[in-house]
Design brief:
With 417 residues, the chain is α+β, with helices and mostly antiparallel strands. The chain is 19% helix and 28% strand. Helix 4 packs across helix 5.
Length: 417
Amino acid sequence: MLSKILRVPLQASPYFGVNQTYTAGSRLLHTIVEAKNPTYTALQAWSKTEPFTHVPWRSPSTTKGTIRFLGPTKDGEPAFLNFKKGEEHQTNFGPSLETVVDVTDLRSFEPPTTLAFEGIEWIYAPSILSEDKLLTPNNRDVEAFVRGPYFEECAQLVKERTGAARSIAYNFRHRRIEEDTNLLDPYKFSAKPLPNFHIDNDAQTAEVNLRRVLGDQEAEHWLSKRWGIVNVWRPVGDVVRQWPLALVDSRTVEHGHDTVPIYTRNNYKTHFTALKPRPHFRFYYVSNLAPDEALLFVDFHSAGSGVESAALGMAHGAFEDHSAPEKVPQRRSIESWDPNSITYIIGLNMMGTHPKHSRQGAATLILHWGAYRTDEMDCKMFVGAADSFGYQVYRQFGFVQVDEYWSRKDGAKADEE
C-alpha cells in the first residue's frame, strides 16, 4: 500500500520570502505519492532551513583563491570610471587590495543551489552561441546575432527558470583574456574579466535600466510589482579553468557598511557598487564551467528596494584559482542581462486537523485564510493532496490537478503498485 505525503516544501528565501518560488502557473493541485525507503527517510531527517546549506553527510569541495577589492584611489577622491571611448584610461583607481580565501564549489553542492532560494544556479543549457559568431570582423554582424537569436535564447532561458511573465535580454559583455591583457589595471574594463568584486545594480540603477528597456510608461507599470534582473553568464569556446567567476553570499554583505560606490562618467548609469574587504564574506563558484552550461544569478531584485537588503543583487568578480593548471586556454565568456517581471506561487507547507476536531470546518477556514492572503499578495497558489478527503476539499476551492507523483514503496513488487 502506497503512502501519500505533501510535496516537500520550499524554505525561507532571502530573495522571495517564505515558500515562494519563481514558477508560473494557475492555482494548482499536486498529488504526490512517495515510497518509504532508507534514502527518503534520510532526506526527510534533514531539512534545508537557510540558503547555502548542504546535506550534512557530504561536504562540497573548496579551492583557495586570490580575491581582489577596490583599493584607495590615487587622489583620495571617490572612485570613478570613464566610459567614453578613447578616455577609458581617465580613472583614479589605485592598486587593488588582495586577500586569499576559500571558495566553495557549487558543482559538488547537494542539494544544488537555485535562483529562487540562494539567488544563483548553474544548469546544463546548450546554446546557439559559438565563438566564431563573436569574432566575426564585422561588428554589426556580431551585434545582430547576439541581440537577435542569442538574446531570444537568454530571455527564454530566464523565463523558464524563473516563471517570469515577461523576460527581455537587453545588454551583454564579451570578455576575453588576450596575450597582452593586464587584468590588474583598470583599463579596457568592458572587454576583460573584472577581478575587483562588485555589484552591478542597486534600486536606483536597476530602475534606470528598466526605463531604458521598456520606456517610462511601461516601466511605471512594473515598478509597482515584483521584478528583477538576472545575469546569464556562460563560457565561450572552452571550459573555464582560468579566472572563473565567483559570487558572494548576499546575506554576508551589509550595504553601505561593506560597500562603496564607483561613479561613472559618460554612461547611462551613475554608479556601480564595489565591495570593501571583509573577512565575513562567503564565496562560491562553479568549477570547470563548460560552454554548454550557464550560470544564472540575481543581479537585482525589487523585493529589496528601499531597504538595506541583501536582495539587491549578488556581488561577483573573477578570482585567481590557486588550483587551476598553469597551461590552459585563455578565459572567454559572455554575460547578458534580463529584466524580468515575476509571477509568484505560494505553496501550502503542511496542514492537518486533529482527529477529535475533524469535519468541523478547520481545514476550510485555513484554506480561506491562505487563499485570501495569496490574492492579497497578488500571487498564485499550489497545494499537495495527502489523501482523497484533502483532494476533494481542494477541488471545492477551485484547484485543478496538474500532476501526480509515484514511486515504489521499499520492498514492494511492481505488480503491487
